[in-house]
Design goal:
By secondary structure, the chain is α+β, with helices and mostly antiparallel strands. Helices cover 37% and strands 12% of the residues. The strands form two sheets. The protein has a four-stranded mixed β-sheet, with no helix packed on it. A three-stranded antiparallel β-sheet has the order 5-4-7, covered by helices on one side. The longest helix has 40 residues. It starts with 5 loop residues before the first strand and ends in an 8-residue tail after the last helix. 22% of the residues are buried.
Length: 171
């Protein structure tokens, strides 16, 4: 892995809290016929649709593309924030419902259509109040995850040089 190019987000990279891209494939160019919803941005919300279904995380690295059997969850209603979607999808209630509707005996599969048909009662006033309070926290979570990724890359680059004496640290 060179760590250059566009990350191709694969199912195994989607973890419980984030995407782990240290063992994923990289590509150099965006495929010609890719859907615009498959080009991911920082903070986009993903859900696993196969295997260990209903794992939810947000994109924490730039230049990431959506791969098959991972769902990209977003609202078409501007008043429904990403933070609301993220925390709602991370709730035990929605997780259990999603696992219950997944099908398959050897390997569970969650249908995006079935997921869209989940009934979730809500109040516009409560949604707005929640989003106003939680959206800044969600944005901070995204920034912290991105910083963690950058620090891990820096550690992985610097540690070998420290170990073989190329770099010295004076105290």
């Amino acid at each position: 892995r060179t760590g250059e190019g566009l990350v191709r987000s694969i199912q195994s990279a989607l973890q419980e809290a984030d995407i782990t891209t240290d063992k994923v494939d990289y590509i150099n160019d965006i495929p010609e016929r890719i859907k615009t919803t498959s080009i991911l941005n920082l903070g986009d919300i993903l859900i696993s649709l196969t295997g260990d279904v209903a794992r939810v995380c947000f994109v924490n690295e730039e230049n990431t593309l959506l791969n098959q059997r991972v769902g990209h969850i977003f609202s078409i209603d501007d008043e429904i924030s990403d933070s609301l979607i993220y925390f709602l999808m991370k709730s035990d209630h929605i997780y259990n419902k999603a696992v219950d509707i997944a099908t398959g005996s050897n390997q569970k599969n969650l249908s995006g259509i079935d997921l869209l048909n989940l009934k979730i009662p809500f109040s516009r006033k409560i949604i707005n109040n929640f989003s106003n309070k939680v959206q800044p926290i969600f944005e901070k979570m995204i920034n912290i995850q991105k910083q963690n990724q950058e620090l891990a890359k820096l550690r992985d680059w610097l540690l070998p040089m420290l170990m073989n004496g190329q770099v010295k640290v004076e105290i």
